[in-house]
Specification:
The structure holds two protein chains of two kinds.
Chain A lengths: L6 H19 L3 E4 L1 H6 L10 E6 L4 H10 L3 E2 L13 E5 L6 E5 L9 H10 L2 E5 L2 E5 L2 H13 L5 H17 L2 H13 L7 H6 L15 H9 L6 H9 L5 H9 L3 H4 L10 H33 L1
Chain B lengths: L6 E4 L3 E5 L4 E5 L8 E3 L1 H9 L4 E2 H11 L4 H18 L2 E4 L1
Antiparallel strand pairs in B: 1-5, 1-6, 2-3, 3-4
Helix pairs in contact in B: 2-3
Classes of the chains: A alpha+beta, B alpha+beta.
């Protein structure tokens, strides 16, 4: 092939490729986000840059290994902490213009990921993508997932517009049983509290969780309420670690291993003076962002008390 | 010239999308293989293969589409089918 794949071609084809890899390695997988949301009428069609799938956590490694066998390389930067536990691995292919995000968990569904996946799988649906029938989240579960995606950055204007649009769709096109189903699904996946803003706007009851939470509500709230993202995850992670591990963590934060820096542009590994300049710029940016991150951490702590 | 025979269809294990000026086909039975790009008459034959076709019928349809004599297009259509079969994007039943 001489002409590169366009994004509009690659994204739907990529969903078909992912479904095939999952089938080949015998892993249950559901397509999420992007064009699937638009097909289900949950958002306006717009070009996605990624292919997102949710997999049975038990088959996560098998699927990512299967992807690597057909040229999709795991380029995740695992040295960088997050405000909530890691939930996806990012893969890229040298001939494809889009990335693949394989999720074994989706932030906001705070119940055990395996039990939540069983709930999603039991409600799965099929959508027609790239001439194939691809298994996907059903519209109700997908609306919950989309809302959690928007709510985790609820301070940002674009996300507020997205959640407004989703509320309008649910309010005007869903019947009462679908809306009630949304509240029940939230309770069954540990998402009642994270979805409270959506459920309240829809005048739906926020039902008590029916599953124990595997991820704390505290971590979710910190992620959704944080107004700064630079440096804050490092401070939070530092606070989570036992004292004996903190010096090593700080050393890695300030002076990360060279191999963890290459992911910025895999085709152009940094060396020599370029590498030193990059490290210096990175550290300077972190020092500049540190005061705001510390203020934000204090603010979030106070809100919790 | 003998009448072309056999039945032809898209391979059951491919995915495809229509772009602005081309169709891109991915061979799901060979994920390491690069996507196949179809443009012009190749894209038109692919569209005509939305349904399983008798080869003779396909030649007639291509000729009709290009307002040409079936005898003129037949050789090109059969050559394309041979190539597409080798690439693994169509299947032929004799």
């Amino acid at each position: 092939m001489t002409t590169p794949l366009q994004l509009a071609e690659a994204v739907p084809l990529g969903y078909a490729v992912l479904a095939q890899v999952a089938d080949d390695v015998g892993v249950r997988m559901l397509a999420i986000k992007g064009p699937i949301l638009a097909m289900q009428g949950l958002r306006h069609p717009r070009q996605s840059a990624d292919i997102d799938v949710l997999v049975d956590p038990a088959g996560f490694t098998r699927l990512t290994e299967g992807l690597e066998r057909v040229g999709w390389v795991d380029l995740g930067d695992y040295a960088v902490p997050g405000l909530v536990p890691r939930h996806a691995i990012n893969h890229r292919h040298p001939s494809w213009p889009c990335a693949v995000d394989v999720h074994h968990w989706f932030p906001g569904f705070l119940a055990d990921p395996a039990s939540s996946f069983e709930v999603f799988w039991s409600r799965r649906t099929a959508v027609r993508v790239a001439g194939r029938d691809i298994l996907a989240l059903d519209a109700v579960a997908h609306a919950a997932l989309a809302a959690l995606h928007y709510l985790r950055d609820e301070g940002r204007a674009l996300r507020a517009a997205d959640i407004d649009a989703l509320v309008r769709v649910i309010d005007t096109t869903w019947d009462a049983s679908q809306k009630a189903d949304l509240a029940k699904l939230a309770a069954a996946t540990g998402a009642s509290e994270p979805l409270r803003p959506l459920l309240t706007r829809l005048n739906l009851e926020v039902l008590p969780e029916t599953q124990p939470l595997a991820v704390s509500l505290e971590e979710w709230r910190m992620r959704s309420e944080a107004s700064v993202t630079e440096v804050l995850p490092w401070l939070v992670e530092l606070g989570r670690l036992p004292w004996r591990r903190r010096p090593g963590f700080l050393r890695g934060a300030l002076w990360p291993a060279t191999e963890t820096l290459h992911w910025v542009d895999p085709s152009h590994p940094l060396r020599g003076r370029e590498l030193a300049a990059f490290r210096w710029q990175r550290m300077r940016r972190a020092i500049q962002a540190l005061p705001a991150a510390m203020v934000e951490q204090r603010r979030l702590r106070k809100r919790r008390k | 010239m003998t009448r072309p025979s056999g039945v032809v269809s898209r391979h059951k294990n491919v995915a495809w999308v229509e772009g602005e000026s081309r169709i891109v086909v991915v061979r799901l039975h060979d994920l390491a293989a690069p996507p196949v790009l179809l443009a012009g008459s190749a894209a038109e034959i692919w569209r005509l293969l939305a349904d399983t076709r008798d080869t003779h019928e396909l030649v007639q349809l291509v000729a009709h589409y290009y307002d040409a004599d079936p005898g003129v297009v037949e050789e090109d259509v059969l050559a394309w089918l041979d190539g597409a079969q080798r690439l693994g994007i169509i299947s032929r039943l004799e």
